[in-house]
Design brief:
The protein is mainly alpha-helical. The protein is built from 8 helices and 3 strands, in the order αααααβααββα. The protein folds into 2 domains: 102 residues, no CATH class; 101 residues, no CATH class. Helices cover 47% and strands 11% of the residues.
Amino acid sequence: MERALRALEDAGADIVEVSLPLAEHALAVYYLVATAEASSNMARLDGIRYGYRPEGRGGMDVADLMSASRGQGFGMEVKRRIMLGTFVLSSGNFDAFYGRALRSRRLLAEDVRRALTECDCLVSPTAPTVAFRFDEEPDDPLAMYLQDIYTTLANLAGVPAISVPCGLADGMPVGLQIMGRMFDEATLIRAGRAVELTSGMDAARPKVGGCAK
């Protein structure tokens, strides 16, 4: 990432540091909001009006049909998010978790938009690690959630963002995230293209030999 920034600076960009004091809370806020919305949106998938209708449903009552539809139709990650979101939206937790998360999202958005008055784009790593190999993706859901630590900020702030490869580490691509102002995607695309050209990644390809078939 530092090489990519130096290359952009050599190409004429001014690199400045900005402060985003609330950014460290973005991941927690995002997963409170996202799981709550997932739980609410998935509630309609009951196997009656919408959603998967299981085989052999004849004779099932409504509760059994809904249970079979969701049990067979949803993957583990979807079920996990529904359970977390239902907990967040429950009467005893709504204000303590979801309400506070919404207020925090507004403050995070203000932080990002304030920073974007000082510069055209904000750059950060896309993820805390290089890309996983096909046979090395962790089974730990928390470890996977932590991969979103940098990208959730743009979602919460409602600003456009793009990820471009900026180099290779151990043969695997390293991503650079660029965030920009609302309705200014053209600047992001120009900046992303500049990163590709100055880093030499416009023609680079990672090694994918030995992938699982």
